[in-house]
Amino acid sequence: MNKSQMTAAMLLALCSLFGCQSSHQVEVQPVEIKPIHITIDVNVRVEKALDSFFDDLEAAENKIKKE
Questions:
Q1: Residue 53 falls within a domain, yes or no?
Q2: How far apart are CA 52 and CA 55, in angstroms?
Q3: Which of the residues 5, 12, 39, 51 could staple to 1 if both were Cys, CB 3.0 to 4.6 A apart?
Q4: CA nearest to 44, candidates 36, 55, 34, 52
Q5: Model confidence over 7-44: pLDDT tens digits?
Q6: CA atoms within 13 A on the CB side of 26
């Protein structure tokens, strides 16, 4: 081996020894979970159901009055 090959081999050996000594740190931040507020307006359904119910009662009442 000549001098340049020897130097290359030594550099390769040094790089292989010190190149693998890296460390990584990962910081984990706490996750904040906030509540979700949902408002559902069901008045339309209730109003339609009540209208239907009272329409049926009025129809029955009108039928009774006619008899």
A1: yes
A2: 5
A3: 5
A4: 52
A5: 888 888 777 766 555 677 888 888 888 999 888 776 67
A6: 2
Question: Contact 1/9 with Cβ under 8 angstroms?
Answer: yes
The answer to whether residue 9 sits within a structural domain is no
Total residue count of the chain as it appears in this document: 67
For the chain, how many structural domains are there in total?
1
Could you identify the residue written with the tokens 């008045």? 43
Q: Would you say residue 58 lies in a domain?
A: yes
DSSP code per residue over 1-67: --HHHHHHHHHHHHHHHHTT--------PPPP----------HHHHHHHHHHHHHHHHHHHHHHHH-
- Residue 8: inside a domain, yes or no? no
Q: Residue 66 is part of which domain span?
A: 38-67
Cα separation, 54 vs 24, in Å, equals 72
